[in-house]
Design goal:
about 450 residues; Rossmann fold; seven-stranded mixed sheet; six-stranded parallel sheet; 18 helices; 15 strands; about 45% helix
């Protein structure tokens, strides 16, 4: 099948590359000339493990190409994906559909033959019906269908998620559209990966409901972690015991400094807004949003305590600033609240992150970027594990402590143990949901 993918951001590029690896002929379209030139040179504008190699493989095979010309991409295409950004609107927290509707209008104006227009972008419930109205208004004689196909890609594991998904969700209004979409995903159904075909609104809601639920699990265990610290329990053991219950499961039960990234913050706020608009308040989701921000602020208090009550004049090494490992994404990362608080409090902050500098330089002014974690910790008063990159999971803690002026550690991802820290010579250690120590 020939596929046109409008948008070469994270979702569009990963999806386009993976569809081409299924054997489809994929043309990725973008309005940014620099991005298209970069892709044509074989350079990937985002960091996602193995994406560059898979992209090169399919370009060489002639199944994947990139263009600025939407009309050329659409010509002969059986499926056109809309995978453009839907950022939060300022003021009301709703998803901004400007780019989605602009893409729908352009598709209508440039199409002649039957096609299925698929919304891959995360959009509020009811958006696909509006997309259909927009296309029909722009080209009344066009024969087409619309479909909703939300993505469930985890940054850092996106290719595996696409190739071996928990499920594929497809929302359609006609049997013809369902046939086209099932053919598109045939390589997955042949391997018995579940394909859920439903109506448009249910497909749209599945995306928001799933992300809001996962954000709730993360926030719940972070609240439990705070209570564990007060009563003397260990949140890692609590999470383990909870996760063994088949009704709960062990995923997304790791305590930390709060969720971030491109999906959870945006989607929880959008769902809350949808509920308000329909007079059905999403009270659990609204509370999750509030508590997640409180959790990030609580991390600042932890660090302040480890610095003797003040950041002023302290040297602090931050290990990891992206919202999770194996990505360069800084969107809504806990670091964006925590690091500015340190700098604003008078600390000299050194940052070490394998991929975070590209975005982080503009987002975190006033910090010093250092590639080596041990150099970052040289003569430091505090080292903070903020993102659990593999590079920070196997540190020589004794070497780290010996390089510091004041060997204090805040392990905000529970990578190490109290025993590890004491044995290595740290004088103070704190983590999430566990009792730390501080030598007098």
């Amino acid at each position: 099948m020939k596929i046109a993918m409008i948008g070469t951001g994270y979702v569009g590029l990963v999806s386009g590359v993976c569809f081409s690896d299924f054997g489809h002929n994929v043309v990725c379209v973008d309005k940014d000339p620099q991005k298209i030139k970069m892709l044509e040179r074989g350079e990937v504008p985002i960091y996602e493990p193995s994406l560059d190699a898979l992209m090169a493989k399919n370009v060489e095979a002639g199944r994947l190409s990139f263009t600025l010309d939407l009309a050329d991409a659409i010509e002969g295409a059986e499926v056109v994906f809309i995978a453009v950004g839907t950022p939060m609107r300022r003021g009301d927290g709703h998803a901004d559909l400007t780019y989605v509707m602009a893409a729908a209008t352009e598709i209508a104006e440039m199409s002649k033959d039957y096609l299925v227009v698929v919304t891959k972008s995360t959009v509020p419930v009811g958006t696909n019906r509006i997309v259909k109205q927009t296309i029909r208004k722009a080209n009344p004689g066009l024969e087409f269908d619309v479909a909703s196909n939300p993505e469930f890609l985890r940054e850092g594991a996106a290719i595996d998620d696409f190739m071996r998904p928990d499920r594929v969700v497809i929302g359609v209004q006609s049997d013809k559209a369902a046939e086209v979409m099932n053919e598109l995903y045939r390589p997955l159904s042949l391997r018995d990966f579940p394909v859920v075909v439903t109506d448009l609104e249910s497909a749209e809601m599945i995306k928001y409901a799933a992300n809001a639920f996962l954000a709730t699990k993360i926030t719940f265990i972070n609240e439990i972690a705070a209570l564990c610290e007060k009563v003397g329990a260990d949140v890692k053991q609590v999470s383990k015991g909870m996760g063994m219950d088949g009704r709960i499961g062990d995923k997304f039960l790791r305590a930390g400094p709060g969720y971030g990234g491109s999906c959870f913050p945006k989607d929880t706020k959008a769902l809350a807004r949808i509920g308000q608009e329909h007079s059905v308040p999403m009270q659990i989701t609204e509370t999750v949003i509030t508590v997640n921000e409180e959790i990030k602020r609580r991390m600042i208090t932890k660090l302040e305590d480890l610095c003797g009550g003040s950041f002023n004049g302290k040297v602090i090494a931050i290990l990891g600033v992206t919202f999770k490992p194996d990505t360069d994404d800084m969107r809504d990362a806990p670091a964006l609240m925590i690091v500015p608080a340190l700098v604003g409090g008078g600390a000299k902050v050194r940052v070490c992150d394998p991929q975070g500098k590209h975005e982080g330089e503009a987002l975190l002014p006033g910090v010093h970027w250092i590639e080596d974690p041990y150099k970052a910790a040289q003569n430091a008063d505090l080292v903070v594990v903020l993102t659990e990159w593999n590079e920070f999971r196997g540190l020589n803690l004794k070497k780290l402590a010996n390089k510091m002026a004041v060997p204090h550690m805040a392990d905000l991802r529970n990578v190490y143990s109290v025993k590890d820290a004491k044995r290595a010579g740290f004088e103070a250690y704190d983590s999430i949901g566990r009792i730390g120590f501080m030598k007098n």
